[in-house]
Structure formats: C-alpha cells, structure tokens
Specification:
Number of helices of chain A: 13
CATH topology of chain B: Ubiquitin-like (UB roll)
Oligomer: heterodimer
Mean pLDDT of chain B: 96
CATH topology of the largest domain in chain A: FAD/NAD(P)-binding domain
Number of helices of chain B: 1
Protein name (chain B): (2Fe-2S)-binding protein
Distance between the termini of chain B: 34 Å
Structural class of chain A: alpha/beta
CATH class of the largest domain in chain A: Alpha Beta
Largest interface: A-B, 49 and 38 residues
Strand content of chain B: 35-45%
Organism (chain B): Agromyces bracchium
Mean pLDDT of chain A: 92
Strand order of the largest sheet of chain A: 3-2-1-7-20
Low-confidence stretches of chain A: none
GO molecular function, one term (chain B): iron-sulfur cluster binding
Radius of gyration of chain A: 22 Å
Number of strands of chain A: 22
CATH superfamily of the largest domain in chain A: FAD/NAD(P)-binding domain
Keywords (chain B): Oxidoreductase
Order of helices and strands of chain B: EEHEEEEEE
Strand order of the largest sheet of chain B: 2-1-7-5-6
Shape of chain A: globular
Bound molecules: flavin-adenine dinucleotide, FE2/S2 (inorganic) cluster
Number of domains of chain A: 3
Pfam family, one (chain B): Fer2_4
Helix content of chain B: under 10%
Shape of chain B: globular
Strand content of chain A: 15-25%
Amino acid sequence: MRHVAILGGGPAGLAAAQGALAAGARVSLIDEGDRLGGQFWRHHERLTDPRLQHAWHRFERLRGALAGGGAQVLVGASVWSAEASVDGVRLRAVVGDADGDGRSAIDVDADAVVVATGAHDLALPVPGWTLPGVTTAGAAQALAKRDGVAVGRRTVVSGSGPFLLPVAHSLALVGSHVVGVHETSRMPALAGGWLPRPWELAGKAGEFVGYVGALARHRIPYRTGSAVVRVLGRDRVEGVVVARLDADWRPMPGTEREVACDAVALGHGFTPRLEAALALGCAIDGDHRGRFVAVDDAQRTSVAGVFAAGEVTGIGGADAALAEGAVAGFVAAGGALDDPRLRGPVAARRRTHAFATRLERAHGIRPGWTSWLDDDTIVCRCEAVTRRAVAERADVPLRAMRLATRAGLGPCQGRTCGRAVEAIVAESGGAAASVGFDRRPVLAPVRIGELAALADTDPRT
Amino acid sequence: MIRITVDGEPVQGREGQTIAGVLVGAGRTAWRTAQTGGRGVFCGIGVCHDCLVSVNGVEGVRACRREAVDGDRVEREVRP
Ligand SMILES: Cc1cc2nc3c(=O)[nH]c(=O)nc-3n(C[C@H](O)[C@H](O)[C@H](O)COP(=O)(O)OP(=O)(O)OC[C@H]3O[C@@H](n4cnc5c(N)ncnc54)[C@H](O)[C@@H]3O)c2cc1C
Ligand code: FES
C-alpha cells in the first residue's frame, strides 16, 4: 500500500489527506500546531465564539474522514528536516510541548509527500512598528479566533487585501473598538481587479458583501487609498499617522492625520513558508514580489514524489487550498487526474485561481511603499537593522549584505523581513534577489541539545 | 480559570489559552526586552520569535505557541 505523508494540517493538508485516503493510500498527517486546522480553523470549545470561524462544518467533515480512514495524525510535531531520494521521502520531527526541552523524535518515511505548509503574514515595515501593540493582522485574527482576546481596546487595521475585513470583524466581536480599516490600494486598482467578469466571483462576492455589512453594523470605517504610515508612542502604541496614497503607494504630502489608538494590526498579504519545499529540492517560481513552489496541474512539483498544495503554491485563500489539496493527495496516492472524483476539486481550483489573479491585481504591493520609511526605520526586527544599513550595502551579493548587516540572521531567519529587505535592495540598485532568504537549513526551531541527540540516533550515520 | 506568574506577579487566564493569549487578555503588551525596547506578540503563529519567554526555567519558548498550564512560571528574557 502506498504511504503518503502530508506536511501541514491546514485546509490544504486536510483535503490532501482526505484525497489520499479516497485513492486508497495509507496516510500520515503532520502539523506543529496543538490542533488541526492550520491558520484557518481555530475554534476552541471553551474559549471562542463560533461566529468567529467560517465553514466549521467543512472542518468537522474533514476531521471525520481522517478518523474514518485510519490516518496517522501527528500534532505538536515540528518537522525540522525533509529529504527526498529515489527511495521516497523522509520527514524528521520533534513531538511535544511547543519549544519544550523534553520532546521526542519521530521520523516518517513515505512514498510521496504533499507539502502544505501554508503562509504567514507579510507586514511591511512602518516607522514605529517595533512598538508593543503593533501586531500582524493574522496575529490579531489568531488571538481572537483561538484565544478569544483582543490585541487592543482601540485598534487600527492597515494593509491590503480582503483579509483585513474578517480581521476587523473578529476584533469587533471580541470587544475591540476598530477605529478604522485602511486599505492601501486605491479605488481604481480595486475596481480593475474586482469588477470585471463578476460571474467568476460567485461565492466570494457574497462573502465580501457580508463583511462590508458587518463592518457597517459595527460602525467601522473602511478607507481605500489610505494607510498607516507611522506608529506613534514611547514605550507602546499611542497612535498612528494615516495618510492618503497615490497609485504606487506613495504617501501624498499634506494628507497626514493623527489617530489615537492602542493597537495596530498590519497585513499586506502573505508569504509562503517555502523552507520544506526548498529542502526537498523543489523548483520555485517568481521574484521578491512573490515566490511560490512551482506545480503542474496535478500539483506535482519538480521533484518526483513531492507534491504541493495551498498557500505555498500561491495566495488564493482557504477554498483554493482545499481544492488543490484534494487534487494533490489523490494523485500522490496514485490516483489519476481525470478520475471523475476529482471533477469537483478541479473545477473549484479553476475558480479560485481566477480569484487569486484578481487579488494580486487589486491588492498587490506597489513599490512606492518604501517612501514611508525613514532612513533609521528598523527593517529587520530581530537584529534591529535599519533601512539605511540595508540600502548602503545593496550593491554586494545578498549573502554578503546579510553577513555585514545581520539582516535576516536573527531568530526568525528572515521570515519577517525577507521580502522588505529584498525590495529595499532592489530599489537601491542591488542585485536581483534569489531564494536566499527562504533557504533555512533547519526547518523549525530545534534546541541544540535535541539536534545533537537526534544526530546520534540517525540510523544512516 | 488558570493562574500563572509573570516575573513573580500572578496573572489569571482561561484554560486552553496560549501564554500570549493569557498575557494579552490581562492587558499586557510587552514581555521581552530587545535592543529597541519591549516586545510582545507580533505574528501570533510562531514565525517572528518576538514573543519569547522562559517557562518554568526553560528559555526561548514562543508564548504564542505554548498553551498555558496552571502554575506556569513565566519570566522575561532580555536579548539585546
Ligand atoms: C495568522 C493567520 C491567520 C489567518 N486567518 C485566516 C482567517 O481567519 N480566514 C481566512 O480566510 N484566512 C486566514 N488566513 C489565510 C490562510 O493562510 C488561508 O486561508 C489558509 O489557511 C491556507 O491554507 P493552507 O492549508 O495552505 O495553509 P495553513 O492553514 O497555513 O496550514 C499550514 C500548516 O502547516 C503547518 N506547518 C508549516 N511548517 C511546518 C513544519 N515545519 N512542521 C510542522 N508543521 C508545519 C502549520 O502549523 C500549519 O498548520 C490566515 C493566515 C495567517 C498567517
Ligand atoms: S508572536 Fe511571533 S513567534 Fe510568537
């Protein structure tokens, strides 16, 4: 029996597990979270309001399919190494309390793997963004949906993309006063992305209308072509400066205005978590504006036996992740792409890809954003590296620049600042960026002692 | 209801919350000292490492990923 490993238990990974089971494979699903659901499903029976979750019934069905099909489910399992060879794939994980010192090691050997590691927020730097009280939009969403708490009493949401709407709604439901939602893109870009061919958007359009109504009920203003361009405060957030922007996201002089608040949620899109796919040797498409695992129409990557689905392959939301996951799991298990059982997911994938194209057209990051930075604005939060330090070394190769400035060499390994640093290098005339920032030798944090113990027990050494 | 201590001070939270959830729920925003000043939660999902704390003597625990357990001793980390 074919054994399919699935890395990631969000919508893509769960659908992949269901697909692989349907095609008759043995399945192991691995996720570092305490519970399945990924970034999308986080309901906690004792803590949260079910209105904060979407399509919860879908999650219950997927979870039921996994249990019914006898899948091996490993949660609290951080995969720190992934390798592909002619014999198959091997994932190595540590299992236990997050960052605990007593975790145990587990290896999963399989014939094929579906990489469904998802994405994290892309929050562009703003002067003052290291002040406590500034979080990503996703963090505000996660704290509301998982822990039932609000990041602040008066919150300003700023960034780009439809994701800002559910974030503002969740904040209101957990009791924060949302002072405003600032969508950086301007009306012409939004209209150009969203208005043509409305029939392609069927379900999505209804979803947005729903959020717009919810925002209106909570009296939350939604402004387009507007952004937080500075965060104010001494030891924590006390307010923000918002300004109107031109089409390239350059603040327009004279439009600045101060707004008092104690929290700011920033989100300018998402960055895929590519390190596992890179470790497996998968080809990557794109540049510093967006870089994803390259897949064909059966979700195959460039490496035999390695498939990818969900936000590692493009930002299209949970519906796209579900459709791609279903295809990836089914084919990874040996099923055929033209199997009638894949008709639904393949059609859904076509729709969601049209949605993803519009998302990029309407909300994609525009190069003028760097003009809201000061020279001494911190870009790399871990190592406190300024924009000036990065720009001054833009002409040396990326690796040398990182060693000289330490940008991206702190604990987050450039996950937070990578795209911003690359944009500053590109704008300062530096060499074209490469996957450098996404390559990480150890995929998830493992303690030095754990690593030493794991190396000792590696059966192949 | 659970009780943890943060640098010796008692803080109450709800069972099932992450340490970051308990701290944010208690109105705290900064619990680590970095070069630029205080830091607390930023990404909320284990990516940025801004929220690191020591838990029961073990350093470098991401508060946003660790579920709080009644009696946990949480301590500030100072990492310039
Ligand atoms: C913080 C945050 C909150 C979000 N909230 C919403 C929301 O409320 N509504 C919405 O529509 N969209 C939300 N999104 C967007 C979301 O990314 C997609 O809608 C959807 O979850 C994508 O599904 P996925 O399966 O591709 O990835 P994900 O749901 O991100 O799942 C990927 C999974 O892989 C696991 N993983 C990654 N690397 C490893 C490793 N090395 N070892 C073990 N496990 C690993 C992660 O723990 C995660 O559970 C959010 C995104 C973020 C970052
Ligand atoms: S808040 Fe980013 S790792 Fe915890």
